[in-house]
Automatic annotation (TrEMBL):
It comes from the Bacteria. Pfam families: adh_short_C2. The keyword NAD applies. Belongs to the short-chain dehydrogenases/reductases (SDR) family. It comes from Mycobacterium intermedium. The lineage of its organism: Bacteria, Bacillati, Actinomycetota, Actinomycetes, Mycobacteriales. The keyword Methyltransferase does not apply. This is 3-ketoacyl-ACP reductase.
Length: 285
C-alpha cells in the first residue's frame, strides 16, 4: 500500500529481532531506513547480542524491498556518536519522519552483578531518551516517534527481584526503565503536540526473539529447574497472557509500528498501546 512513501525512519536495535522486523515492514510500506545497532555484547547481559553480519542482513532485506538503507554501528548510550550517525544519515537521505527507539537488553539472573541494573537502565531508558533527543531537531509536523516498552513495566518494582530473586539487578533495571518510558512518552507528547509531532509507546508481551530465547530467561520462568530447556519454559510462557499463546511474533508488533508511523494515526499521541495477548488485563491494567 506504500503508506510510508517518501518517509525516512531511524530504528535502533535494527540488526535482528523486533528491530529488523520493524525495518523490513516499514520498508515494505515505502520508507527508507537508518538502521542502527551496537553489534557487540554487553558484559552483564547473559545472552549474545547482534553482530555486524546481522545488521548487514537487515540492510539487504530493506534493499530487497526496493528502499534505501544506511546502517551504522553505534551504542545508544553514547548520545554524541548516536547524533553523529543520525545527522550523517539524514543528510544523505534527505530528512527524518519516523523514530523507532527500540534497542533494549534484559540481563536477567541472580548471578548478574549490580552493574547489570545500570546497563539495563542505561540501554532501555537512557538509550531511548538519547535516540529521541538526537533525532528531535530533524522532525517536523507529521513526524512520529515510537518507543518500545514492555508489559514488564506493569510489574510492581518490588517484584522485579533484588537480592536472590530469579530476575536479579538486571531485571530490576529493565522493569524500572520500562515503567519510566510511559511517563516520558506522556510528558513529551504534551510538549510536541502543538508542533503536530506524535510519540507513543508500544508494550509487547513475550516476543519470539533472542531476548526471550536464552537460558537466563528460561531460568526466570522456571526457577524450579537448575537448567531449564526451551521446552520447559514453553510450558509456563502462556501463563503470562490471557490468550493461550506463549508469545507474539515480531511482526505482530511491527504492524502496530507501521500504523503509528503512518498518517493513519495522525491524531494518536501520548498513548500506551499493548500488543500483549491480554497480559495487561491479566495483571489488572
Amino acid at each position: 500500500m506504500q503508506r510510508l512513501s517518501g518517509k525516512v525512519a531511524v530504528i535502533t536495535g535494527a540488526a535482528r529481532g523486533q528491530g529488523r522486523s520493524h525495518a523490513v515492514h516499514l520498508a515494505d510500506e515505502g520508507a527508507d531506513i537508518i538502521a542502527l545497532d551496537i553489534c557487540a555484547d554487553i558484559e552483564t547481559n547473559q545472552y549474545p547480542l547482534a553482530t555486524r553480519e546481522d545488521l548487514d542482513e537487515t540492510v539487504k532485506l530493506v534493499e530487497k524491498s526496493g528502499r534505501r538503507a544506511i546502517s551504522a554501528v553505534v551504542d545508544v548510550r553514547d548520545r554524541v556518536s548516536l547524533k553523529k550517525a543520525i545527522d550523517e544519515a539524514v543528510a544523505e537521505l534527505g530528512g527524518l519522519h519516523v523514530v523507532v527507539a527500540n534497542a533494549g537488553i534484559c540481563p536477567l539472573g541472580n548471578n548478574v552483578p549490580s552493574r547489570g541494573f545500570a546497563d539495563a537502565f542505561d540501554v532501555d531508558f537512557v538509550g531511548v531518551v538519547n535516540t529521541v533527543h538526537a533525532s528531535i531537531d530533524h522532525l517536523r509536523a507529521g513526524a512520529s516517534i515510537i518507543v518500545t516498552g514492555s508489559v514488564a513495566g506493569l510489574v510492581p518494582q518490588k517484584d522485579l527481584a533484588t537480592g536472590g530473586g530469579p530476575q536479579g539487578p538486571g531485571g530490576a533495571g529493565y522493569g524500572l526503565a520500562k515503567k519510566m518510558l510511559g511517563e516520558y512518552t506522556k510528558g513529551l507528547a504534551l510538549t510536541l503536540a502543538p508542533e503536530q509531532i506524535r510519540i507513543n509507546t508500544v508494550h509487547p508481551t513475550n516476543v519470539n526473539t533472542g531476548m526471550l530465547h536464552n537460558s537466563a530467561m528460561y531460568r526466570t520462568f522456571r526457577p524450579d529447574l537448575p537448567e531449564p530447556s526451551k521446552e520447559d519454559a514453553e510450558i509456563v510462557f502462556p501463563l503470562l497472557q490471557l490468550m493461550p499463546v506463549p508469545w507474539v511474533e515480531p511482526e505482530d508488533v511491527s504492524h502496530m509500528v507501521v500504523y503509528l508511523a503512518s498518517n493513519e494515526s495522525r491524531y494518536v499521541t501520548g498513548q500506551q498501546l499493548f500488543i500483549d495477548a491480554g497480559a495487561g488485563l491479566k495483571m489488572g491494567i
